[in-house]
Write the structure tokens for this entry.
Amino acid sequence: MTALQLTEKFGFEPLAMPAPDHPVNGCYIGDLLSWVMGRAQADNAWITIMSNINIAAVAALADTGIVILAENVTPDASVIQTAQAKGINLVRTPLTAYETAVKISQDI
Amino acid sequence: MSEFLNFHFEVDGDNFVSAGQASVQMKKNMRQLGLAPEIIRQVSIAMYEGEINMVIHAHGGVADVNVYEDRIEMILADKGPGIKDIDLAMQEGYSTANEQVRALGFGAGMGLPNMKRYTDEMKIETVVGEGTTITMYVNLK
Ligand SMILES: Nc1ncnc2c1ncn2[C@@H]1O[C@H](COP(=O)(O)OP(=O)(O)OP(=O)(O)O)[C@@H](O)[C@H]1O
Ligand SMILES: [Mg+2]
């Protein structure tokens, strides 16, 4: 499934969608950046409640397919712009990380 | 081995809120060079961890990436506090990161292990009170 298809199917709130056709396969949940860096796989959906600007660099370098902010966390001011500029798909949902993963599990 | 491309980056030590710029730029450079995605990913992850360490532990430093025909060399050099016990620092989970950077998601103690895992060779030279130089290689074949 692509990032855009996933976003639309589950009604995630798109914050930045510069790479709508980016494939999404598998999922990684985590907030500690070095864990995500080391363990997330390319094209994963990355579910996190970490909302500072560093998530953009990590997503870009680890090649994740989409970043899903759980629990409706509000990203810091420049995160959305940076995501847009770096080609990072960034969406938000009121669901918890667990609920999000369960919901999307059939489709990724 | 004599022909190579050098990419040089100054890594700002004050700005750990938006650290990782050098690694993000290097990734773009590698894409332009047409390197394989898996190689790009390995170098990106290793360089990012090294870059962040210079920012959060050593007040910044310099990064040089040399692209040779058969391998990529990353040299990250800082004039920070040095690493007292390398074996301890290499252990998963060991971190001296302060509360401020932990709040940003750093400090899991996984950076150095990631650098080792995603490169083919890694060398740490460090002198307490003088600084640290980490050299990493990713083979292209
Ligand atoms: N360039 C450096 N200068 C001085 N000390 C360093 C440097 N790099 C690493 N260290 C020391 O080694 C420890 C382990 O580093 P490592 O990158 O594995 O974890 P971390 O940076 O603390 O957390 P994480 O990388 O998971 O965000 C650090 O906490 C720090 O004490
Ligand atoms: Mg680190």
User: Anything to note?
Assistant: Chain A has one domain: 3-104. The longest strand of chain A covers residues 13-16. Chain A touches chain B at residues 31-35, 37-38, 42, 50, 52-55, 57-58, 60-63, 78, 82, 86 (CB under 8 Å).
